[in-house]
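Troubleshooting: if your tokenizer reports a length mismatch, compare against these two reference records.
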Amino acid sequence: MTTQKIANQLVELCKKGKWAQAQKELYAQDAISVEPFGWTPRLTKGLTNIKKKGEFWAKNTKVYGMEISKPTIAGNWFTMKMTVDSEMKGRPRAKSTEICMYEVKDGKIISEQFFS
């Protein structure tokens, strides 16, 4: 699958809240995830651990709304802008915006990094 097709599919699945399906279908087993400094680990290695991080976020976050931009492609990389109106357990409701950057290799996402 091309970087463009992976990017388009990721955006569509994320807009529908189908994070687990996106990870299962689009991510490499040895993918890495890098978060901005915050309440989750900065670096997560391996799809199994990325899924666990996502499950933790889903259990501890109420999402009121989400906007995701069209992807921008550059070779094996793509980015998208994500704005989330949410409330994490123990924190006030807030709107956050991140630039999400992904690297693709051999038809799978091998890395994701979020900048806020």
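Reference record two:
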Amino acid sequence: MEKMKTEKILPEKFIEVLQHEGVVAIVSWGVQPHVVNTWNSYLVVTDDEHILIPAYGMRKTEKNILVNDKVKITLGSKEVLGYRDYQGTGFMIDGTACYHESGPIYDMMKEKFSFLTRVLDVTVTGIKQTI
């Protein structure tokens, strides 16, 4: 029986970007469109489709997610070469989101980021390199 080749959802270039600091924008819409920011260094990839983000504020994002769990995330770094050796690259991520206020995911993230009050858990449904 031939093994099926499975393509990774999160490409290596994306993981490389996370090794360098940069701003992350998280877009949600439900009650009202909203954008909130965080940092590359705060994103924790737990497997090939989940990104965990410590949340301290993000209250409007949480209200939106209760109505519509879809989010878009953009991030990048000028330290990672992009297409055609362009100095810098970025990504746009589509996903669904939920929050954790307790449990093993919360506990693991609380150890890393003592300031968090909740954890934003994004299941990646699509990713595109933008530059």
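Descriptive notes for reference record two:
- The chain has one domain: 12-129.
- The first helix runs from residue 12 to 18.
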